[in-house]
Amino acid sequence: MANTQGKIITCKAAVAWGPKEPLVIQDICVDPPQKMEVRVKILYSSICHTDLGAWNGVNEAERAFPRILGHEAVGMVESVGEGVKDVKEGDYVIPIFNGECCECRVCKKEESNLCERYHVDPMKRVMVSDGGTRFSTTTTKEGGLSKSQPIYHFLNTSTFTEYTVLDSACVVKIDPNAPLKHMSLLSCGVSTGVGAVWNIAKVKEGTTTAVFGLGSVGLAVAEGARARGASRIIGVDANPSKFETGKLMGVTDFINPKDLTKSTHKIIQDITRGGVDYSFECTGNVDVLREAFLSTHTGWGSTVLVGIYPTPRTLPLHPMEFFDGRTITGSVFGGFKPKSQLPNFVQQCMKGVVKLEPFITNELPFEKINDAFQLLRDGKSLRCLLQISKFLKK
Ligand code: NAD
Ligand code: ZN
User: How close is the Cα of 259 to the center of ligand 1, in Å?
Assistant: First the structure.
């Protein structure tokens, strides 16, 4: 049994103190897990564009500081709170921003992965059970450390810290033989992209696909479509350097909208005899969403929206455009029900159905987290993996 069980742990975390302010690596206090909660030692965390969005703080309503960001990671259970049965100390786990309680009306239905209690909520900043935080700043007093200011949680997870506390619904146990560094990718980006193809669009062999935005999420869409036998995968990105990696994930054609004299959807319609079967929007830009929608074929074209849109602007589509028979749908975490379906996805990745190596383009120590943010902002990384804690594999 961990000798930290039931005790407050003091550890390092990267704390966001305000929008666009460099994260501060500092000591924090992490409370023990309460009923149906799990305390996890984070081993590796990668950075997703959604972390960047929260750090930028464009959507004022979602701002909450001080806060520990991060939602894509892999770790090991340090201790569990009362009532937790499916994980125990020492298990390898991945935190999930869109949880599954396995008991509510939605969890019992096949159609949705938006659990009534633990679905993703960008406004949420405290734990469900008591409305409190499990993180706080430390202050040195005579006789030792004592708690002071609360630090907010983020996306049910908060992984830029050596220890975090999660609702057990947001923790998925993984095969201990799985390659740990790669498992961080399944915590968000790769599952989101591959799942959008497999679970939402249900892409069929021999079909055509266009992917808008070739970051990790968009390239995971491409990799998912490649694995399903799509015959043509058109990648669209304003950063031409993304095409080289894209080829590894099955991208067959590349379009840079900056090079065009007519709209992207017109080009796609021209080269595919009327449009692709499926398109995926992975930039988080509403104008790009319109292009993605119109780049599909009339009659059966299907668009899946994956990007996150911090702007208050609404969809730039006229209702009559839906009479052309195209459809559009959104997806969270690629439609995966994390506890029920992710362990099987882990096995498929271990068999090589989906390649994970090319997604990790950089690795840095935890202290360099601000450099890792900069790499993503500059479009120079897909996923930068941070080693959060030192550990020994069993
Ligand atoms: P990223 O920053 O790595 O990639 C975004 C890509 O889009 C970049 O390559 C960039 O060059 C390109 N791009 C941006 N604007 C463009 C434009 N106007 N035209 C063409 N290309 C453009 O981001 P990521 O981590 O891959 O995440 C992608 C999106 O998915 C983000 O909006 C993120 O918040 C969202 N996301 C959604 C979910 C979900 O469950 N729905 C989960 C994870 C991430
Ligand atoms: Zn993410």
Answer: 20
- Does residue 142 surpass a pLDDT of 80? no
Q: What is the number of the ligand 1 atom nearest to the C-alpha of 334?
A: 40
Q: Which of 40-49, 71-80, 113-122, 135-144 has the lowest mean pLDDT?
A: 135-144
> Which listed ligand is nearest to 49 at the C-alpha?
1
> What are the C-alpha distances in Å from 12 to residues 69, 138, 169, 261, 360?
13, 11, 25, 51, 24
Pocket residue to mutate for ligand 1, from 212, 217, 236, 305, most atoms within 8 A of Cβ: 217
Rounded to an integer, the average pLDDT of 95-113 is 97
Contact (Cβ atoms closer than 8 angstroms) between residue 328 and residue 91: no
Identity of the amino acid at 384 = C
**Sign of the torsion formed by the C-alpha atoms of 253, 186, 161 and 97:** positive
Give dist(CA 193, CA 334) in Å, integer: 6
Q: Token pair of 377, please? A: 């902002």
Domains and CATH numbers, the chain: 9-187+356-387 (3.90.180.10), 193-331 (3.40.50.720)
Atom of ligand 1 nearest to the CA of 219: 26
User: How many CA atoms within 13 Å lie on the side-chain side of 29?
Assistant: 18
Cα 221 from Cα 227, distance rounded (Å): 10
Give residue ranges with CB within 6 A of ligand 1: 48-50, 53, 188-189, 192, 213-218, 236-239, 242, 257, 282-285, 288, 306-308, 331-333, 376, 379
Helices (DSSP H) in the chain: which residue ranges?
Answer: 49-56, 180-186, 189-195, 216-227, 242-248, 264-271, 286-294, 338-350, 369-377
- Residue 379: pLDDT over 90: yes
| pLDDT tier, 1 (very low <50, low <70, confident <90, very high otherwise) | low
* CA-derived radius of gyration, the chain: 21
Stretch 304-322: mean pLDDT, rounded? Answer: 91
CA of 281 to the centre of ligand 1 (A): 8
Q: How confident is the model at residue 391, as a pLDDT?
A: 57
Among the residues of 144-274, which ranges form H helices?
Answer: 180-186, 189-195, 216-227, 242-248, 264-271
Q: Which residues contact 33 (CB under 8 A, 6 or more apart)?
A: 39, 79, 80, 81, 84, 134, 165
